[in-house]
Amino acid sequence: MAEKKDEFERGMKRLEEIVTKLESGELPLDESITLFEEGMKLSKGLDKRLGEAERRVEIIVGRDASGGIKTEPFGDE
What we know:
With 77 residues, the chain is mainly alpha-helical. The chain has helices at 2-24, 29-59; strands spanning 62-63, 69-70.
């Protein structure tokens, strides 16, 4: 589990680095496009991981009156 957390955190850090470089406006167009593509792939992967975590949270919220698992949507959904 810790490995997945570390992987997620590394992905977030890399995405932040990419955004900072792109926002600087100092990169050649080709490098900017390459970094943008990498950032989009990272973003999609991280979004998928967050979605999976949200579903897990829904499952472990608690139990209903009959002892079954009670689920509630994650967040304000």
